[in-house]
Design goal:
By secondary structure, the protein is α/β, with parallel strands linked by helices. It is built from 8 helices and 7 strands, in the order ααβαβαββαααβαββ. Strands 3-2-1-4-5-7-6 form a 7-stranded mixed sheet, with helices on both faces. The radius of gyration is 16 Å and the shape is globular. Bound molecules: S-adenosylmethionine. It comes from Rhizophagus irregularis.
Length: 219
């Protein structure tokens, strides 16, 4: 069993600026751990990318799974505090993370075109109004507010997945039932020929959270 990354370097005050790991974060960790052997032995990644890294807990955990330190672990977040904290979390857990403050992957394509072997996203998924999303004053609100169906940021990400994934690449996406996961799978299949499965699901209070896994037909 791989231990959850140590976040002792963070103070309660830090969580006023960055999303505190919660059940959704831990479900994504559990999904990566479930796939650990597959990731180590079959994917053997060169480049991993996490969108919306928050504290960096997920990418640090992925680094621990991969173990040998040969993969480049890139993280992005729209929140500059999150980018700084992500780097610190990696450092405090002896994992090298390269963190960039940007919207999704702005500025990184086309250099990362078809080169990401492991892609992760625990997105802002909570159903809100569009105004809550786009007029939100607090950076923390951007961590969870997802707009209509909780899908407004997710839907911006979907076309990028096909551009980012390598031939052997896999994409892990956290969703809740309200995000209409079946519809997301249909979009990915019909528009980008990406296969999918529900890797894990769990109830967190009244929220049904699930991890979808996507990969190319060619594998
Ligand atoms: C639900 S939190 C997940 C944080 C962390 N990955 C975890 O699992 O604990 C979503 C994260 O996505 C970031 N985010 C929201 N919109 C984004 C965007 N357009 N581009 C990049 N990051 C974004 C937020 O700042 C936040 O850190």
């Amino acid at each position: 069993m791989i231990p959850t990354p140590n976040l002792d370097h963070l103070s309660p005050g830090d969580y006023e600026h960055v999303y505190e790991p919660a059940e959704d974060t831990f479900l994504l960790l559990d999904a990566l751990e479930k796939d650990a052997e597959f990731l180590r032995n079959e994917i053997k990644p060169c480049i991993c990318l996490e969108i919306g890294s928050g504290t960096g807990c997920v990418s640090t955990f992925l680094g621990k799974i991969l173990g040998d330190g040969t993969a480049l672990l890139i993280c992005t977040d729209i929140n500059p505090y999150a980018s700084a904290i992500t780097n610190k979390t990696g450092y405090h857990n002896s994992i090298q993370l390269d963190s960039i403050t940007t919207n999704l992957v702005n500025g990184l394509l086309p250099r990362l075109y078809h080169s990401i072997d492991i892609l992760c996203f625990n997105p802002p998924y909570v159903v809100t109004t569009s105004d809550d999303l786009y007029l939100s004053k607090s950076i923390l609100e951007k961590a969870w507010a997802g707009g209509i169906d909780g899908r407004e940021i997710i839907d911006k990400m979907l076309p990028l997945v096909d551009k980012l994934l390598s031939d052997k690449g896999v994409f892990y996406l956290l969703l809740i039932n309200e995000n209409k996961p079946n519809e997301v799978c249909e979009i990915m299949k019909n528009n980008y020929h990406l296969q999918s499965e529900v890797l894990l699901s769990r109830l967190a209070g009244r929220e049904k959270q699930l991890i979808l896994k996507f990969w190319r037909n060619t594998r």
